Amino acid sequence: MPAPSWDLAIAVFFLIGIAFGYILQREKIIATLLSVYVGLVITQVFSGNVFEFFQGNKTVGTMWVQSGASPFTIRVLIFMATIMFLSAKGGISGTKAKGLLSPIEIIIMSFLTTGLMISSIFYFMPPESREAFMAASRLANMVIKYYVWWVVVPPVALIALGFFRKSSSSD
């Protein structure tokens, strides 16, 4: 019996992301998408300093840690922690949507948010590891190869879907 491929793992992650989007609904998906972008920025800014701290090269006050954590591990932990904290406790929310487009909008935004998360995690990997994943998986190849599109398309989709959305007004 052959072992499951990375294509299957990536496809399952996309399906879980879309199902999670239905559970969260549109407002939380938009908050999660914004959290992913903030996570990317925070990861890029702080991962070098955090890595130096965990290597024992930098101190915080008189405290330092020496561990074997890789830069990839540090980046993923910072990225995921930022997303979790901002999504859960960030107080970011969108407007309530109504109409027939809302379920389609949830699927699109969940798909794009999941793709952005997966492509960002691949982006944090060393180039050799990315190349190995690209060679082993067609889906990983597409997710990695089109990283710029995963970053650009979600805000464009938000704007485009905004033209078709009717906001509910509170009286």
Question: Can I get a quick summary?
Answer:
The chain has 171 residues and is mainly alpha-helical.
Number of E-state strands: 2
Helix content: over 70%
Low-confidence stretches: none
Shape: globular
- As laid out across the biggest beta sheet, the strand order is 1-2
Q: What is the radius of gyration? A: 18 Å
Strand content: under 5%
What is the first-to-last residue Cα distance?
Answer: 61 Å
Q: Decide which structural class fits the backbone.
A: mainly alpha
| Number of helical regions | 6
The number of domains: 1
The biggest beta sheet reads: 2 strands, antiparallel
Mean of residue pLDDT?
83
Give me the strand/helix succession.
HHEHHHHE
Description of the structure:
With 171 residues, the chain is mainly α. It has one domain (6-162). The protein has helices spanning 6-55, 71-89, 101-124, 127-136, 138-145, 147-164; strands at 97-98, 166-167. It has a two-stranded antiparallel ribbon. Helix 4 (127-136) packs across helix 5 (138-145). The chain is globular, with a radius of gyration of 18 Å.
